[in-house]
Amino acid sequence: MAKFDGDLDPLWKDLDRAIGQMLIMGWDGTEVTPQIRHLIEDHHLGSILLTAKNLKSAHQTARLVQELQTIAHQAGHPQPLLIALDQENGGVNSLFDEDYICQFPSSMGQAAAGSPDLAYNIAKATATEVSAVGVNLVLGPVLDVLTNARYQPLGVRATGDDPQEVSQYGIAAMNGYKDAGVATCGKHFPSYGNLDFLGSSLDIPIITQTLEELSLSALVPFRNAIATGNLDAMFVGGCGIANPSMNVNHACLSDQVVDDLLRNELGFNGVAISECLEMEALRNEIGVKTGTVMAVEAGCDLVLLCRAYDVQLEAISGLKLGVENELITKERVYISLKRVLRMKNSCTSWSKALNPPGISLLSKIHPNHLALSMKAYGDSITVMRDNEKLLPLNESMHQEEELLLLTPLVKPLPASSMTKTILESKNKTDSSQTIHDKWIHRDRGAIMSGEGVFRELGRSLARARHGKLLHTSYTANGVRPVHENLIHRATTIIIVTADANRNLYQAGFTKHVAMMCSMLRASGQKKSLVVVAVSSPYDFAMDKTVGTYICTFDFTEMAMFALVRALFGDFTPQGTLPGTLRKSKKVLKSRQHWLVEPYNQDRDSQGLDDLLQTLARASAPNHQYLQTTNASAFEIYNPGIEEAHFVVRNSSTQALYGFCATYYTKGTGVIGAIFVDPAKRNVSIGRSLHRRALRGLTQRRGIKKVQLGMCFPGIFLGIPVDDGAVLKSWFASNGWDLQFPKRLTNMTIPDLNTWSAPEGLLQSIQRASISFDLIHGLDNSESVLNHVATHASPEVFELYKFALQETKTCGVVRAKSPVDSLLGTVIICSPGSHLSNYIPALQPLADAELIGGIIAPIVPSTAQANLVLQGLALMGVRQNKAHKSTRSVLSWVQDESYEPLLAMGFGVLQAFEEVTNAPENVSFPCPPLFVLGE
């Protein structure tokens, strides 16, 4: 019989309680029902999913959640309920209250605004608002990559089709949620970004990509988000997978997807949440009892059952039966229980759950959040083309001319007052949905609203132009006589489309009107056409027959308000299209040259600090050392090294868009760092900086080689290996030969208190008659400096000179042979040394952390090289421990030398590839059409 897990409260010996924590359930209705009360009290249900069908207002939501938590508390639940909510913004907000809850752009709209910082602020604001009413788990961020963006129902809920951009914005949003104190849940694993709706006999979409294809694209954001350590949960989808290596009917029921791919390959150790098992296809094929057991067997920790009480009871019964039949072991139950409890500990407590701040906090923060919303929507509006210079309309139209607005019949977004009004007055659903719509809207109950959803847009346009507006809707019936008459009357026509690629009548209607306008212009009439895509930007992105094309990325009231302001010149839209759409414009900008200026400390240091923090927030954790890097780290003021740094900046705002650090010493020119604001990539800023840097270095007298990466300062030792494919492609396209890089590795022992030397190492060193001593200062350093000059590059020589001068905090350990010849050297530095200012890996991320450094081991290749290196590392660790260090960092280990150090208990912190070329071999090519990562 399985033993109870001793790490858990004895109360959890009751297996029924533990099973209750493995379920997340919801119901229909805005009040607590006897059924949901019964599930919490008698079946120990530990998690609740709230949807738009439960929520009427912020005040009602706070009251409802507080009642749910009180029921759980009085029923003896050891920990509060998880209260989960879909609050993605754009069109997917379960909680809408125009008085207290702010509306923000969709994920794609936020990417169009071009600022991961803005995405972070939006996520933090959203999470702060829902937390105020008692929600502690946001089902987000969306990490799907729209591999086939044009036809996918996920649409603007996803950031776009570029895996790195999706990662960047997803991590920014996740950090915003976490900093507001709520738990996070990435979705929809392994991807809803390229679904095939025609290949399944079960009426469910399937993924047809191979695992290799998924790994290169769809899985990248999930992998990067997991690597940050901030992702509490993962929502595993219900789609099928059909490829040569995997044939799965429902991803969330497959151990190949959850245990093998998510946990073993991607390293996720948080809570896996299944798709709702009330899906019709799943119920008909497998049944809920068996499906619940299969979900847990696959590796899911929380099984979702959205609303049907009889089905929920069936799932509970299935789990208990699975344990009785030993299909699910008790150990398996307690593994999931511990994961769920760990997540609860991170986001809630009884004092927090029973006393949410509610309306008082929401009233206080609402003005600031409303200002953030207006800014975000304004920043997201994107003008892809305005070939005829129609914008702003108040300049291209005369007051007496008529403006015509043509809008489609659409389903209102759940996050709108229109939807709220309609749902309150009617209770019916549209039966004409496509399989796409049924899938993506399966829990939302949106209904057809006729032309009412855009009525307020028409009124706003009329008010903005202080004149008459003609407005009518269009349908799949095409261009009717009423449309023709209005088009003949108007001089400017605005056509609104919403997912025209999936609602083909909209595309046909728009093309027909565009042809009419063209013919009327040919006959001498003034007919201007503006097309506004209010959902997917792909509607007419590549159709050049539409000369003026604007994208808003959703059609909430706030989006339409921003659109009107943009159309009439209140501001100039600066949004850019996401992913490859943004990069497609690179064809037009490929020869763009930015003004590169010398870095000025007084003027640019604050801008550089801001840029570094932006990069740190946008990067996966392998670059977390950027958090401890500041502008001063690049300025070493060393007499043996000349330095020249460059910036691309906005001279009006003083913001830095890009920075490049270069150094020159004894015939070697080095690019020590080059980076670009993530919001300003793909517009040649990196290329402009790179060109200027190389021109400066190759013009140096006596230049023998140019190098990517530098150990002093040691911010970037080379090209980061984790980003290698993208960055290598970029540098290769900019003239570098990358065939023979030198690997440089930073390593660490994270806890010196528990570390001990490998058995037998000291004896091996003694048998080899290797001795060690420690020296300080330059007075007796001649042998060390001769050794370094012979076996290392010029900047390493300067690093050793710098360390030897820091007599109080740095020293050099020498390894010597029996005849007193030098076998190797390494720099040792104590916590807080001046050297750590230039090596971010030595800077602590936590206040209590004390990091000792073991820097730049120089060990020539001999039969004893590995043993000498291990001996130097051992002496370094001993010195670090003597200086009260809690952690050791061993920086700048060359090529494969890191492998013997792994056996000593060191782990890899970061890995880089240093590249060296002869100056004549680095060309200055004409800019190609497209460069990754620029």
UniProtKB/TrEMBL annotation:
Residues 15-342 form the Glycoside hydrolase family 3 N-terminal domain. Keywords: Glycoprotein, Glycosidase, Hydrolase. One of its GO terms (molecular function) is hydrolase activity, hydrolyzing O-glycosyl compounds. InterPro entries: Acyl_CoA_acyltransferase, GH, Glyco_hydro_3_C_sf, Glyco_hydro_3_N, Glyco_hydro_3_N_sf, NagZ_Beta-hexosaminidase. It holds the Pfam family Glyco_hydro_3. The keyword Hydrolase applies. It comes from the Eukaryota. The keyword Cell division does not apply. One of its GO terms (biological process) is carbohydrate metabolic process. Gene3D superfamilies: Glycoside hydrolase family 3 C-terminal domain (3.40.50.1700), Glycoside hydrolase, family 3, N-terminal domain (3.20.20.300). PANTHER family: BETA-HEXOSAMINIDASE-RELATED (PTHR30480), PUTATIVE (AFU_ORTHOLOGUE AFUA_8G04060)-RELATED (PTHR30480:SF8). Belongs to the glycosyl hydrolase 3 family. This is Glycoside hydrolase family 3 protein. It comes from Bombardia bombarda.
